Amino acid sequence: MTDEPSTPGPEFASSPDARASAPAIEQHRRAKPWFRQKRFLPPLALILLMVIIVATYGGGWTSLTTGRASPSNGTSGLRASAVAPGIGTKVRDGKFEFVVTSVERPGKTLPGKNGTTLNAHGEFVIVRVTVTNVGSVGQSLDCQCQVLINDKGQKFGTSSAILATKDALKFVRVIEPGNTVKNAVVLFDVAPGTKISDVELHDSALTQGAKVTLR
Fold first, then answer.
1. 3-state SS, residue 174
2. How far is 198 from 148, CA to CA, in rounded Å?
3. Domain boundary among 81, 114, 144
4. Which end of the chain has fewer surrounding CB within 10 Å, N or C?
């Protein structure tokens, strides 16, 4: 028996549509995969960068922010817990080096110049200080910016009666560079029974001041 030539099925039949779509199919095959196309590269790079950061630091963005803030919090705690220097300790403010040598509470009256008696509105507090000029310009201790502080944080300026005390000269004299004035009187007038806490000593009204605890 003679085999008759088989007729190709419809799916293999050549047609104008099939011939026309062949170049398109071939072009699609040669096209780059989606992940290599340019429009996908920037997002992929960003995602990869985020994965690397998370893998490196292990805590994400929140952890990084917290980590940066921690040293600041620790420093604040150390500053808050710092204790001010006390009597007998050297402190500096501007061109002056101060040492508080004693604190006296003579009460409502105080002997003044030429046998006079000074009277306080409340009661007197005397803070005696030794002052050395460590700068290069002469300066006096005479400054209304010297401050006494009580246990409630209230501040008291120096009493004007200081200029009538026996030791007024030490307070107003110019201290030359390298010179020292010992046990100068810084006089305050406070309410009776005031519990004093600190004194804040200044080179001038423009300086920050050096605090010394008197407790």
1. strand
2. 6
3. 81
4. N
